[in-house]
Amino acid sequence: MQQTTALTAGKEDYPPGDFVIWIVIYAELLAFGIFFLSYAFARSQNVELFNASQLELNRTAGAINTLVLITSSYFVVRSIAAIRENLQKQAARWMWAAIGLGSIFIVIKLFEFYTKYDEGITLSSNTFYMFYLSMTFFHFMHVILGLVILTIMATKIRHGDYTAQEHDGMETGANYWHMVDLVWIILFPLVYVIR
Amino acid sequence: MNQPHNESSVSHRGSMTLRPCTLVWLALVGLTLAMLVVGKMGLSGGNVVALLLVATLIKTQLVADIFMGLRQSRLLWRMIVTVYLVGVIGLIGLAWWLGNV
Amino acid sequence: MQYQSQMAAKPYFIAAILLFVGQIVFGLIMGLQYVIGDFLFPEIPFNVARMVHTNLLIVWLLFGFMGATYYLVPEEAETELHSTKLAYILFWIFLGAGVVTVLGYLLVPYATLARITGNEILPTMGREFLEQPTIIKIGLVLVILGFLYNTTITILKGRKTVVSWVLLLGLWGLAIFFLFAFYNPHNLVLDKYYWWWVVHLWVEGVWELIMGAILAFVLIKLTGVDREVVEKWLYVIIAMTLLTGIIGTGHHYYWIGTPEYWQWWGSIFSALEPIPFFMMVIFAFNMANKRRRQHPNKAAMLWAIGTPVMAFLGAGVWGFLHTLAPVNFYTHGSQITAAHGHMAFYGAYVMIVLAIISYAMPMLRGRAAANSDKSQVIEMWSFWLMTVSMVFITLFLTGAGILQIWLQRIGENPQSFMVVQEKISLFYWMREVAGVIFLIGLVLYVISFFIGGEERTAPAKA
C-alpha cells in the first residue's frame, strides 16, 4: 500500500469508501443513464408534446430542490472534514443538517407529486409525464434510502464510532448520497429546463 | 487509506481561505441559479442548450472530483465517471439536436 | 460433512438427478415431434410432452434447492437440523406428488385430470407451467411450508450468516410468490399479469437469491476466501437483482393489455437485469483468484465457475437480446424465447444445483473431500458435453428464431406459421442432435458417481 501510494504520486488505489459502494454507484449511474437517454431520445420523436408538458412543471420547485440537495451534499463533505479532525460534535451537527435538507427535498417533491396527482396526471397521461413521474419517483426512492443511510451515520457519529483514523464507513455512505445528488444535477436541467 | 484529504490539510481553520469544497458548493449554487433563470425565461436554441449541458457537465464533474473524492484516486475510477458524464450528457445533446434541428 | 442431519440432502439430490434425466428424455421426444409431428402420437402428444418437460424441470430444481438447503443450513448455522425426520417425510410426500402428477399427465386426458381432481372447486389448472392439479398445488404449498419451518427454526437457533439469510429470503419469496398460482381471475389480462408474479418473480427474482447464496457457499468452501468479502458481494448482488428484477417483470407486460408505460419500465429495468449476473461472474473469478487452498474437488470448482458464466450468457445476454419493447414486438413467442429459456435455465439453475451436488455428494456418500481423479475426469467430461451442447442448442434455436421472425413477421410476404416451421426444420434437426449429446453428457454425469478409485482427501494448502 505504502509503495503504490508513493508510485502513483499520492493517489490512492480506490476512491474513498468501500470499493463495493463504487460498484453500486456505477450500476446506479448506469440505471439512471439509461433512463435519461430514453427520455432524451423519446423527446426527439415528440418535441412539441414534451415542450408543452414541460411548461406545466414547477421549475422553481425543481431548482430549489437542486440547491437543497447540493447543499446537503456539501454538509456531508463538511461532516467528514470534521471527523478527519476528530471533531465528533461538529460532524454530527453537519450530518443532521444534511438530513434536514434531505427531508426538505422530500417535502417539496411530495408537494410536486401532489400537485400533479391533483391535476389528474398519471403515468398514462402522456410519454412526457410517464418519464417525469417514473424518473423523479425512482430518484425519490433513492433519496429516502440515502436519508436512512445518513441517519444511521449520524447516530454512529454520536456513539463515537468514527474517528480521524477510521471512518471508511462514513465515506461509503457519503458517496452514496453524493451519487443521489449527482444524478439530480443531470435530471433537473434535462427534465425541467432544456427545451 | 485515510490520509487527510486536500481540503483539510490545505485549509487553515480560522483563516479566511475558503475550503475547496466550499468553493465548489458556491459554484454549484451559482450554476443552478443560472439554470433557473434560463428555465424561467423559457429560453431555447442550440447555444442555450449547449451552455446548459456544459454547465451540467462541470457541476457533475465537480461533485465527483471534490465531493466524492475521485480526484484523489487512481485515474481509472475517475475516468469511468468522466466517460459516463461526457457520454450521457453528450448523447442528451445529440438527442436534442435530432429533435430540434 | 460436519453434521449428521446434512444427510437429509442425499435423497433430494438423487431424486433431482433422476427427474433431470426424465426431463431430458421428454425434451428429446418433443424435439423430435418438432420435425416428425406424429411421433408417439397418440400416446404422448406434443402438449403433454411439453408439460412434462417443463414441469419436471421445475420440480427437480426444487428438489435440488431443498437438498442444497438441507446440506447448507446445518453447516452455516453450526447446528443439527431442527427435524431430520420431517425432512425425510416431506421428501416422500413431494416425490409421491410429483410422480402422481406426471403419471396423471401421461395416463389420462388433461380435462379428465381436471375433473377427477376437483378443479372446478378452485380452478387453477390450464395455465402454462402451473398445469398441476389444484390439490397438488396445495400439497406443494404444505411441503414448502414444512420445509421452510424446518430450516427457519434451524437457522434461528444457530449461527446466523449472510449466506443463510439470503437463502432463506429467496426460499420464503419462492413460497410467497407461488401463492399467486391460486389467483385465477376471469379477466385474462389480470390473469396473465399475476401469473408472471409466479413465473418471472421466481426465475428473475427470488431464485437468483437462492442461486447467489448457494454459489457463495460453494465458493467459500472451495476457495477458503474470507466470509466477509463474500458477504459484501452477496449484498450488492441481491440489491441489484431485486432492483432490476422486480420492475423488470414489465418486459412480460408489453403485449397483454397492460398500460403503455410498462413498455418503458420493462425495457429500461430489464435492460439492467444482466448486471447482477455480470457481478456474479466477477465475483466467482475474484474468489477463484484469491483462493487460499487447492480443493481436491476440481469438478465442483468447474461447475461453480461455469454457473455464473453460463447464467450471464443465457439469462443476461440472451435475455437482453429480446427484452427491449421495440425488438420484442417482433420476437415475442418465437424460437428466440426458447433459445433464451434453455440457456438461462441451464446456466443459472441447472448448473448451480449440479455444482452443489458435485461438491456435497462425495461427502454425503461417506467419501473423503472429493471423488477419485478418474471419477472427476468423467464428471468434467460431462460438464463440457452438456455445456457445449447447450450452447449449440441455444445457437440453433436462435438461428431458427431469426429465420422464423423474418419469414413470418418482417419479410415482404409474411408466411403462415406451419409453412415457416417447415422451412426452419433443419435447425430443429441440428438442435435434436445437440440434445442427444446433452443426454450423453448427463448419462456420463450419472456414471461418474459410480466410479470408485482412490478418493482425494482433505484440502491441501495452496
TrEMBL record, chain A:
It is found in: Cell membrane; Membrane. It comes from the Bacteria. CDD domains: NorE_like. InterPro entries: Cyt_c/ubiquinol_Oxase_su3 (IPR024791), Cyt_c_oxidase-like_su3 (IPR000298), Cyt_c_oxidase_su3-like_sf (IPR035973), Cyt_c_oxidase_su3_a-hlx (IPR013833). It is a multi-pass membrane protein. One of its GO terms (cellular component) is plasma membrane. Its main location: membrane. Keywords: Membrane, Transmembrane, Transmembrane helix. One of its GO terms (molecular function) is cytochrome-c oxidase activity. Coiled coil: none annotated. The keyword rRNA processing does not apply. The keyword Repeat does not apply. The chain crosses the membrane at residues 20-42, 62-81, 93-111, 131-155, 176-194. Residues 21-195 form the Heme-copper oxidase subunit III family profile domain. GO terms for biological process: aerobic electron transport chain. Belongs to the cytochrome c oxidase subunit 3 family. PANTHER family: CYTOCHROME C OXIDASE SUBUNIT III, NITRIC OXIDE REDUCTASE SUBUNIT E. This is Nitric oxide reductase NorE protein. It comes from Thiohalophilus thiocyanatoxydans. The lineage of its organism: Bacteria, Pseudomonadati, Pseudomonadota, Gammaproteobacteria, Thiohalomonadales.
UniProtKB/TrEMBL annotation, chain B:
It comes from the Bacteria. Keywords: Cell membrane, Membrane, Transmembrane, Transmembrane helix. GO terms for cellular component: plasma membrane. It is a multi-pass membrane protein. InterPro entries: Cyt_c_oxidase_su4_prok. It is found in: Cell membrane. The keyword Membrane applies. The keyword Cell division does not apply. The chain crosses the membrane at residues 21-42, 48-68, 75-98. This is Cytochrome c oxidase subunit IV. It comes from Thiohalophilus thiocyanatoxydans. The lineage of its organism: Bacteria, Pseudomonadati, Pseudomonadota, Gammaproteobacteria, Thiohalomonadales.
UniProtKB/TrEMBL annotation, chain C:
The keyword Heme applies. GO terms for molecular function: cytochrome-c oxidase activity; heme binding; metal ion binding; nitric oxide reductase activity. Component of the anaerobic respiratory chain that transforms nitrate to dinitrogen (denitrification). NorB is the catalytic subunit of the enzyme complex. Shows proton pump activity across the membrane in denitrifying bacterial cells. The mononitrogen reduction is probably coupled to electron transport phosphorylation. It catalyses: nitrous oxide + 2 Fe(III)-[cytochrome c] + H2O = 2 nitric oxide + 2 Fe(II)-[cytochrome c] + 2 H(+). Keywords: Cell membrane, Electron transport, Heme, Iron, Membrane, Metal-binding, Oxidoreductase, Respiratory chain, Transmembrane, Transmembrane helix, Transport. The chain crosses the membrane at residues 12-36, 56-74, 86-108, 135-156, 163-183, 195-220, 232-256, 262-288, 300-321, 341-362, 383-407, 427-451. One of its GO terms (biological process) is respiratory electron transport chain. Heterodimer of cytochromes b (large subunit) and c (small subunit). Pathway: Nitrogen metabolism; nitrate reduction (denitrification); dinitrogen from nitrate: step 3/4. This is Nitric oxide reductase subunit B. It is a multi-pass membrane protein. It is found in: Cell membrane. It comes from Thiohalophilus thiocyanatoxydans. The keyword Transmembrane helix applies. GO terms for cellular component: plasma membrane.
